[in-house]
Batch of 2 targets.
Target 1
Amino acid sequence: MDRTGIQPDSALAGAVTELAEVLGPKGIFTQAGDRARYASDQSGLVGDTPVAVLRPASTEEVSRVLAICSRHRIGVVPQGGRTGLSGGACSPQDAVVLSTERMSGVVEVDREAMTLTAWAGTPLEAVQEAARAADLDYPVDIGARGTATIGGTIATNAGGIRVLQHGMTRPNVLGLEAVLADGSVVSRLGKTVKDNSGFDLKQLFIGSEGTLGVVTKAVLQLRRHVPQSALALFALPDHASALVCLTAARQRFGSRIRAFEGMWPDYWNFVCHQTALATAPLAGQHGFYLLVEIEAASTQTEEELEAFFADLFERGVFEDGVLAKSLAEMRALWSVREAVGEVDDDFGHHINFDIGVSPSALGNFCDAADSVLAELPEAVGVLKVGHVGDGNVHLLVAHDGSAAAEERIEAAIYGLLRDWQGAVTAEHGVGRIKARWLGHCRTPEELALMRGLKTQMDPLGILNPSVLFRDTEI
Ligand SMILES: Cc1cc2nc3c(=O)[nH]c(=O)nc-3n(C[C@H](O)[C@H](O)[C@H](O)COP(=O)(O)OP(=O)(O)OC[C@H]3O[C@@H](n4cnc5c(N)ncnc54)[C@H](O)[C@@H]3O)c2cc1C
């Protein structure tokens, strides 16, 4: 027996032979060079090279390979595009990866029901494009849209920049097909909007990070496509003013607020001045920056946004602002916010916290985090950027790369978070990286119920061992 309790090499080799028989030559990678590419995701955590990479092309193949893995008690890591930021798709020792890359494609777009059915391995962007071709819209949108898959966004309940308007992934999934650890298929791919016939089982798989089943297909709820929008960037004295602005925007624009994104001065100065990652669209120093996108209801939307700006400027809520007048100007404004995806090289070793608190408490929480970090010599830099309307801040804390520094900083921030009754992850998921901190935002009773569900659905604990629960290594 090795560290994970998996059978010795010979038995593992026997299992791989069985898996190869089911999947055929295109469906399995066993060469070291091929396997190494599937070890890790984008979280920075370095995974082990998987024993084999399984590439099933159908639900039936997923079912057969999971039954084999169960029989041999082999850990299975479901993988989509490997863009995850919490180590959920990183391979532990002696596990196989189950990649959905060959289960890709849009199966159907139903314009009347406003639904799209897709295989789990379909890239998010391909789904968005297929919806647009039907003059509809799939509203879940994240920076990694070109590579992240539908299965991955479902497994992580991905959020992104349009949560305020259409919610996270959860409310945008109507039907789901998943395969349990023993190979049984749970399929409910209907387009029923209203369905109170018992438990809504699909919700168990959404956000479960591959620990309860492998998602193979989904029916997604599409929305009306509104191509036009107006975008403005505002400079404010502080986060409290951003909340005033949010309340005013909700009153004036209601559900037409497409994005309401915030940048603290540490982030703004880093991407616009310390590095050349973005060009500053506004001059001077301000206490907070807000990017507001409003869906167009008519050709008057720019004027509406201007009037909104003028009103709040007069009331002293805004200090400065700029309204995008063209698509190129819109891209330029968005590029400041999206530069967070490019800070890694310039910012050096850092922890990327993905914290959720009540939207009304976000500013004060960030002030408290700044104070806590100022006391820690290990924390050598802080950047804050996030989704103001959702109370979600991406708090990036630079350190010297040592495990001790990481430990001290995490303990300080997650300790603070516990006091504020927040979430250790608002959208990226718990994965392997945050599993040890889950108890900071979930009660013992909640954790026991989660473990009970895990045991019921995956009694041998083969699906994504040590993700979400630290004690689920098989
Ligand atoms: C530049 C960038 C920007 C990002 N922006 C956002 C953002 O705004 N909001 C946000 O929420 N996230 C964001 N992310 C994180 C990431 O893109 C999402 O978590 C995404 O949902 C992961 O999709 P994936 O296909 O790459 O999944 P992977 O990384 O392959 O896997 C993620 C998790 O899902 C599980 N999984 C994958 N496929 C399946 C399946 N078919 N069945 C069961 N489990 C499965 C894996 O085991 C793992 O636990 C960003 C990442 C990057 C690199």
Note: The chain has four domains: 9-102, 111-224, 229-341, 348-441.
Target 2
Amino acid sequence: MNEKISRRGLFGVSAGAAAVLAGAQAATAAPRNTGFSLRWWGNNSWEIRLGEKRVLIDPWLTRFKTGTYSPQGADPETPLEVNKKLIDRYVDSGELRADHILVTHGHYDHLTDVPYLAKKTGATVLGTETHLSLMKALGAPEDQLAVASGGEYLAFEGYTIRVLRSLHSAVGPRAQVPFPGSRTLSCRDVPRRIKDLVEGGTLSYQVSGGGLSVLNFGGSNYVESELAGLRPDVLLMPAGGAKVVGYASRLLTTLGNPAYVLPTHWDDFDYPLDEPGRDYGGLTPLREAVAQASPSSRFVVVDHLQTFTP
Ligand SMILES: [Zn+2]
């Protein structure tokens, strides 16, 4: 399969079909896909389709300008914005639905759209106490919020969700978490600027259903011991990790060299979702690190709004 998949390729021959063509042995070894696919909505926004069910991770469609990947970095005073018209277009047309929304951490490029999307879709939202506190203050319906701390393994109709303790990307010379901090559920301060959306702990999620499983990280770091024994078919792996010892090799070895590695969080989100993703500079190093650490894994770049079927 090409590293960059065309729309036609994605909707035409799936990787599962290719395995069948390769021989009966490959076909029996491959997990049977019963309605599992992934659609990328930019940054770390993924829609997991499991038959009729939909699970969203960090859905962020608005992508207001922050200068995050400019030499100056993000301006902390950037006001938060939600493009309701854009979100309405996708939700009202039925293109975007959600039974669950999973939040990895509190930052603006992950959490900002979730309160409005929760209201629009009626989805249950998982996150830490800080994430829920931020979303409640931004107008998320309180009775749709469910707190998680990592370690939960939950069953729903048609899929399971495994919540894992995780770590945020380590950035800059001090290997620092940008906009660190936490807040309690009772805090009512309304976040108005990107600096108000504090990290609040980081979770990762494995979602399984339709015979397959996908593991997502919202930042380029992880807690290795949390991942012992996990064998996801698809790993959604963030670009970055330069400050993390053996970022790719430790992760891929611990996970038993997943069949598919899809890069995530690699596009410059100062540019809109309806244009092809623009690499901020992390995609090539990630591709090389994965090729070296796990040559048997297929590195598949899925572009904005494209769908991948394992
Ligand atoms: Zn972040």
Note: Residues 7-308 form a domain with the Metallo-beta-lactamase; Chain A fold (CATH 3.60.15.10).
